[in-house]
Design brief:
The protein has 295 residues and is an alpha+beta fold. The protein has helices at residues 13-34, 40-43, 59-66, 93-102, 116-144, 154-183, 189-219, 225-256, 263-291; strands at 45-52, 75-78, 83-88, 106-114. The relative contact order is 0.16.
């Protein structure tokens, strides 16, 4: 029978945890220093409906023409045959006239402002949605992992899972803050969806590891917790890496083919999945060993 190869991951547990909290601190700094650039969904903005007298260009052509004006995110929604609705940040009359200079053969049908009241309500709901997701997932972990030994309680698994999800959320908010400064990336509904997707993906990775640890503890081939954790990580390592790569490759295709409207969405998704996978492989087990000294 082939002998199982076990790598001593916990040998570097202090380094893994240091990097984990280092990323968290840098992300918090990025959020407060650069501040996320709010998109139309959260920050309010301008709606302009226009009609083309001749043939209407496609959305990509319109975006390309407007990209030189530094308007930030421009959402284009087709309405009637020759009409489109442009959604963007609050703009001045001068900027509006520049839009029509770029879009020749286009005339204004209507324009209006999206008030901050709607945006504030959406911000509040999004914040509660994210917090509810974090708490609900943590409660689920606590219920799913019943007390295995005297020291290995479900509260430990739940706490570690919550820390991983919370760090990943702050990390992604930090990323979008930096991208907002460097590339005019805006925090909008699609970015929120990407973050929530990463939370679901991250908890799946963590459950895979913790479930294997639980199985190995119940088998009790050894009472050494470090050996059990190292063995569990080694057993799930290839599965977690392969699952992450299979998910990441299609998302990278969006970046490769330069789908402009999904560029930042795909970047956040890739970084969130990578961060989640690294947490479950290197940090989750390290934290468990740091908290629990013996079974």
């Amino acid at each position: 029978m082939k002998e199982e190869k076990i790598f001593n991951f916990l040998k570097f547990k202090n380094l893994f945890i240091f990097i984990f909290f280092g990323i968290f601190i840098l992300s918090v700094f990025s959020i407060f220093y650069f501040k996320p650039k709010m998109g139309l969904d959260f920050g309010g903005g301008t709606l302009i409906e226009i009609e083309f007298e001749k043939e209407k260009p496609n959305s990509q052509e319109i975006k390309q023409k407007l990209s030189e004006l530094n308007l930030g995110e421009v959402i284009i929604q087709e309405t009637e045959k020759n009409r489109v609705l442009l959604k963007m940040r609050k703009i001045s009359e001068r900027e509006k006239s520049q839009i029509f200079e770029k879009l020749k053969d286009a005339k204004e049908i209507r324009s209006e402002m999206v008030g901050p009241t709607i945006s504030l309500e959406l911000k509040r709901k999004s914040l509660w949605l994210t917090l509810f997701s974090l708490i609900a997932i943590s409660v689920y972990i606590a219920l799913a992992f019943k007390r295995i030994t005297k020291n290995l309680s479900p509260l430990v698994f739940s706490t570690i899972s919550f820390l991983g999800l919370f760090q990943n959320t702050i990390f992604l908010l930090g990323v979008i803050s930096v991208l907002g400064k460097l590339s005019n990336a805006e925090f909008n509904i699609s970015i929120l969806i990407a973050i929530l997707t990463c939370l679901g993906y991250g908890i799946n990775d963590t459950i895979v590891l913790f479930d294997r640890i639980r199985e190995n503890v119940l088998k009790r081939k050894t009472k050494d917790l470090s050996e059990i954790i190292n063995s569990s990580i080694s057993q799930t390592f290839s599965r977690q890496v392969n699952t992450s790569l299979v998910t990441i490759f299609p998302v990278l295709a969006i970046l490769f083919f330069k789908v402009e409207s999904l560029k930042f969405f795909s970047m956040v998704l890739v970084l969130g999945i990578l961060n989640s996978t690294l947490f479950s492989l290197f940090v989750g087990g390290s934290m468990l060993r740091l908290i629990i000294k013996e079974l």
